[in-house]
């Protein structure tokens, strides 16, 4: 039940004055939600200081305020031309410019000879100094209606910024004083205002510094939001740990499988397996994530855990987001497991009729101990005899309900998630605060380093010529085209043109995958590439994480400066997976910015994904530097965790864990206030949409 104190903030947006059926959807679009709270949380993006002056001091590009006399009107000669109004004061004159069909009412409201206060942006034009559509034009008696400082809010067509500000200020008036949920010592140390004071300063900035994310009131609001999220995650983690689960011991089967592998585990792999086994043997439900670069050996670690489960009589399911990835996992683990008596099946959407029925019987009877597959694994007719471990590859690619449906195929199923997107340690809590994290940060021996070179787009023909020679010698290559325009269709057209040009110059089989293709069609092209039927694969989207084509030894990335550093590293990881020497060519449009130059330089120097992710964060700061929006990264209202609020994440995580340890049911006075905080931000432990695991 939402606390009564929050009712005014969670009232519908159309309860604000002046928000009717036409305005409500426009305001909801600007605010990102349809509640009064969403409008109260709107942030002004800039501050206009209106400087009173005489016309002789009018300055191009400045927002200024003048007291003037209306001299004369110049009517337009045609419908497309504006009205021009000459105004003056004792020091000079200015032209006001008005477009639109209501301009002809101006003369009635502001007749020649009348004195007016005008305020707006001054522009020097070929017609002289002018002001297009003044922000304010009022009688001198109403000069108080023009604020000297005016915060500017986001707007949309049909809803100007000034009206948005009116609604935001009314929403602020509805915001009550709320009980303090922050720790007193932390408040004093950070010099935070109260929540209500912070929100009021958000809407009444006094200087540009008040708009900065480093201002005390914005840091307070950001920390509140992070604490609400971290507390929900800590509660979920604690709830899972309270849930009893089967105790599974390390097995001789897994030991023999590991001994038979043609390589020895790296120290990081051995450490990750030990951490997983400690969880499985603890009697509590495991929720663990293995983070590691492409090719770091996550799947074989998971395979050993599945062998332990099978030896104890249980079953495991490994779910991948695409059929091609599921097949790759099946090919990796089915041989070693089957050789040691562990039955493995592959279940995808392609399985039909008798073949599918046979696989379902093997799962239901327990004859198959491991199932590898796609979304097909959690369909209603799939039943397990004793599912005890769910392994989810690239878990952010699945919806929460999909992950839960697989886990619900058994009782207290252990969860092991895998991700090939390295996340900086400072951001781990925001994405994986309710999971324990194992890092595989060593490369297996024998991986061939990828030679990385950068070249300007002017050398494109040289690159094509070398690619031609390599393809003739039997090599395969990826060619990545960026998403650079606002129109996907334009991007697609550019990629189609590139694919057609490569077909002409290379005289080889060239395939194309892009975001508009149906998943089955994309899988078919990828499968042809993996089977060697296609020599060069042109792609507009990031090629599937984990796709393994050992024969692919060349990666060409067009306009590499437009990609994030971590994204470039992920793409480079598509090659160098076999024993042959591999190369990555980063084509760029000169001149490079300093940041782009640093990105390309570090790619040439290292292939450590975690170091690259940290550097990406340092270089790019805010925005979506790491492509994290595609990695299930939360949508924050106030917190900028890729930029100036990174230091608040660990503090919020520590505070949340302490709260859950001391007051797990939030029954203390602070606990009750924290319940209000969680409701305020919709971060609650049981809220499925926010569930990371």
Can you lay out the helices and strands and say which pair or pack?
Layout: H1 23-31, H2 36-40, E1 46-49, E2 51-52, E3 63-74, E4 83-89, E5 92-98, H3 106-109, E6 115-121, E7 123-125, E8 128-132, E9 136-138, E10 149-152, H4 161-174, H5 184-190, H6 195-203, H7 216-242, H8 252-260, H9 267-280, E11 287-292, H10 298-311, E12 315-319, H11 323-339, E13 344-347, H12 353-365, E14 370-373, E15 387-393, H13 400-407, E16 414-419, H14 425-432, E17 436-440, E18 450-456, H15 460-472, E19 476-480, H16 488-506, E20 510-513, H17 519-530, E21 536-539, E22 552-557, H18 565-572, E23 582-588, H19 594-605, H20 609-620, H21 646-662, H22 669-681
Parallel strand pairs: 2-3, 5-8, 11-16, 11-17, 12-14, 12-15, 13-14, 15-16, 18-23, 19-21, 19-22, 20-21, 22-23
Antiparallel strand pairs: 1-10, 3-4, 3-6, 4-5, 6-9, 7-8
